[in-house]
Structures are given as structure tokens and as C-alpha cells.
């Protein structure tokens, strides 16, 4: 008896490879079933098998909806059954999603983050008063903290005031007021220190030499 080998290159392309060729063959058989009831039962059975192939997906939301969509995708949208979810079309599957609106950020002052910019945009439209002044000062102190965390160095308050003036579009100017921001030690919990890599290497080398002796 002669065995004819079937090469993958001669087989139809797998539409969703993770489900394997047997699922795809089962779908092809279901497409050819003439009886509507039997075809619906077979489609449900195939979806159950697909769910068992990836049991970890059972905990995901809308997993049944996803499995039915994948069933129609495997069938090349030729399977005609009464699905429990809206049947997708090939055009819908191939359509590209709308691009995500990424939050705007000023690349020049990226270390302040987007929330600071939103707060500045909000407070600059407030009516003048103690609450507005207190929030502006709080924002400036947080900007100073962000600057210190990013740069690991000291910073003059005037630099923060200039950045705040620029980010507010010239609406907030603390340079005109006699304001002092919190000290770096109070903002960070300790005075910012630059790492001296050369000194740390020397200490480690000394420690190793002592351990050898």
C-alpha cells in the first residue's frame, strides 16, 4: 500500500494557526452541511472545542463573542448559522481601528508630565483669589519636585517660575510676586545628591582588597 504524503505547502493556508488544521477542516465540513439545525449544532460544538484549546481565555470578558467571531473568520465568512452574536463581515474585520488620541505633551518639559499641564490649563482660567494662589503655588512646588527628581540637582525657583510662565501661555507669572518655593530637602525628604561613580568604585575596590587579606 502506497502512502501519499501531504505537505503543508500543498494544504490550504491556516487562517488562525493557533487552532490548528483540524479545527479548520471541521469548519469546512460544517459549511458543507445542508441541514440548518445540524449546521448550527456543529458550529456550537466547534466553538466549544476552540474554547477548550485555549482554556486560559475563558476568564477573559466577551470570550464567547471572540470565539464566534474567530469561527466566522476561519470559515472565510462562508458559514451560515444562527450565531448568538452579530455576525461580522469581512469588511469589518479588515477595517483599521481609529488611531488612539495620545495625550499631548510638551517635549521640552517632558519631566513635568501631562497632569501638571492639565492643572495649569485649568487653574489659569480661575477667578483670582486665595484658592487660585494656593493651587498655583502647589503646582509650582510639584514642578520643582519633578525637576529635582528628573535632574538630580538643585534648581533656582526662578527657573520653575519661568517654566510655569511658559506652560501657562504667559497667564501665570510668579516672578512678579515675592514667592519662595519649598526647599529641595523638604520636597524630596533629603537633600538631592549627585552620585560620584568614581568614589563608589574606589570604595568597592578597597572592600574587595580587604576581604582578600
Topology, element by element:
Layout: H1 20-32, H2 36-53, H3 63-74, H4 90-94, H5 114-123, H6 130-151, H7 157-167, H8 184-188, H9 197-212
Helix pairs in contact: 1-2, 2-3, 5-6, 6-7
Question: Keywords, please?
Answer:
single chain; 213 residues; mainly alpha; 2 domains; 53% helix; rod-shaped; disordered C terminus
What this model shows, in words?
The chain is an all-alpha fold and 213 residues long. It folds into 2 domains: 11-94; 107-188, no CATH class. Helix content is 53%, strand content 0%. It is built from 9 helices and no strands. Helix 1 (20-32) runs antiparallel to helix 2, helix 2 crosses helix 3 (63-74) and helix 6 packs across helix 7 (157-167). The model is unreliable at 207-213 (pLDDT under 50).
Amino acid at each position: 500500500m502506497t502512502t501519499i504524503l501531504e505537505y503543508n505547502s500543498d494544504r490550504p493556508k491556516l487562517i488562525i494557526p493557533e487552532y490548528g488544521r483540524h479545527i479548520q477542516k471541521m469548519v469546512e465540513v460544517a459549511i458543507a452541511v445542508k441541514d440548518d439545525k445540524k449546521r448550527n449544532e456543529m458550529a456550537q460544538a466547534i466553538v466549544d472545542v476552540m474554547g477548550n484549546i485555549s482554556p486560559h481565555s475563558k476568564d477573559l470578558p466577551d470570550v464567547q463573542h471572540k470565539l464566534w467571531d474567530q469561527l466566522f473568520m476561519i470559515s472565510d465568512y462562508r458559514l451560515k448559522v444562527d450565531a448568538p452574536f452579530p455576525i461580522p463581515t469581512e469588511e469589518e474585520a479588515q477595517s483599521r481601528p481609529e488611531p488612539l488620541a495620545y495625550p499631548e505633551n510638551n517635549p521640552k518639559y517632558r519631566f513635568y508630565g501631562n497632569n501638571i499641564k492639565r492643572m495649569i490649563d485649568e487653574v489659569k482660567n480661575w477667578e483670582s483669589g486665595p484658592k487660585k494662589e494656593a493651587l498655583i503655588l502647589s503646582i509650582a512646588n510639584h514642578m520643582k519636585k519633578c525637576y529635582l527628581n528628573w535632574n538630580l540637582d538643585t534648581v533656582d525657583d526662578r527657573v520653575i517660575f519661568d517654566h510655569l510662565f511658559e506652560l501657562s501661555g504667559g497667564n501665570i507669572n510668579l516672578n512678579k510676586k515675592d514667592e519662595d518655593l519649598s526647599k529641595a530637602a523638604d520636597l524630596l525628604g533629603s537633600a538631592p545628591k549627585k552620585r560620584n561613580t568614581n568614589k563608589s568604585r574606589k570604595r568597592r575596590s578597597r572592600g574587595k582588597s580587604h576581604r582578600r587579606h
